[in-house]
Amino acid sequence: MNQQGPKATIVSLFFVAGLAAYGVAQQRAGKCPPDVVDLKAPAYRIGLAAHGTKKNCELFLYISVEPHHFFREDMLALAERLNNDFCYERQLTVIFLDDYYAARHPIRNTKTYWDAERGIYHLDRNTGRAYIKFSTSRDKPKDEVVIELDSRGK
After folding, report:
1. Rounded to two decimals, what is the model's pTM?
2. pLDDT of residue 4
């Protein structure tokens, strides 16, 4: 029989509850292990990453990509790579920029950010919807090229 009294029991219960809450709060690593890296997919650098605060907890990434990769084949390969790299994420929105500094400081550096923003990749594994929108050069609209993707990410 436990002779420690009610205080010790309450402390023990809080400790166990804390461990349980800690286990629930842990998430899988955001980035998946690479199976096969597509050599055609352009390299990217993550400037800023954050999960949304709503129930769906969407991951938002601001990434930089070298400007010469903003054409159809490279962007499709990049979308596939992002799909694989972040396979644990149910919803993913990636903002493409052609300047790493702008990707690191998307809010504080408005002029540089707006000049460097080139498009978006959105993936929703819950609905199977995915698309890419981007511009082939800075002077063109950010939705110059629109590619609707199938439910490959599901």
Report:
1. 0.74
2. 52
